[in-house]
Amino acid sequence: MMRLLPLFPLNLVAFPGEKLNLHIFEPRYRELVRDCFTEGLTFGIPPYLDNAVQELGTEMRLLSIEKTHTGGEMDIKTEAIGVFRVRQFYRQAPGKLYAAGQVDAIVQDEVADPALRRLIAEQVRQLYEALGLRKLLLQLEPDFKIFDVAHHIGLSTEQEYQLLSTTAEQERQDMVHEHLARLLPAVLEAERLKERVRLNGHFKNLQPPTF
């Protein structure tokens, strides 16, 4: 069922379940935040890519206004709660400064392939260890969803949007598995190259071959 949703286009992709901190400074979006706070509204972030507001976006819930600055700017905490499709975009909501859209929700199939999840977890482990990001491994839950790691595996914004456009977890798993299969060899080779560069110039204790 379609409904009117305030929109805050940004040059980023937010994934369901993500916590996002934003600094709000434009008057139209300060108005949006005030309306969300006083009326209990949610708002949407459709990515702004290729000089255009995209059709898909992520619905956000305002969690708190952490700080209001003297100039009126705000620091807010939000949480992403779902994906929607914009059916009709309005540069201004009726009587408001901010944009809005007629949207409908996109239902997600959250069933994952356990074997593929284990394989992706191993790929992510190799990537993080190669990049010296072991702290991120501590945040990787055994039953993680693809959206939980999507910002931390080297995807471009356009690739993240492609991931957002999928409606099934297994399809997202396939996309990420293929991406990491392409990325990992290059990352591991770069690490080997760095190690060789570090070793060059050092005294080496080498065993001569027997011939």
TrEMBL record:
This protein's name: Peptidase
InterPro entries cross-referenced by the UniProt entry: Lon_prtase_N (IPR003111), Lon_prtase_N_sf (IPR046336), PUA-like_sf (IPR015947)
Annotated ranges, domain Lon N-terminal: 2-184
Pfam short name (any one): LON_substr_bdg
PROSITE patterns: LON_N
SMART domains named among the record's database cross-references: LON (SM00464)
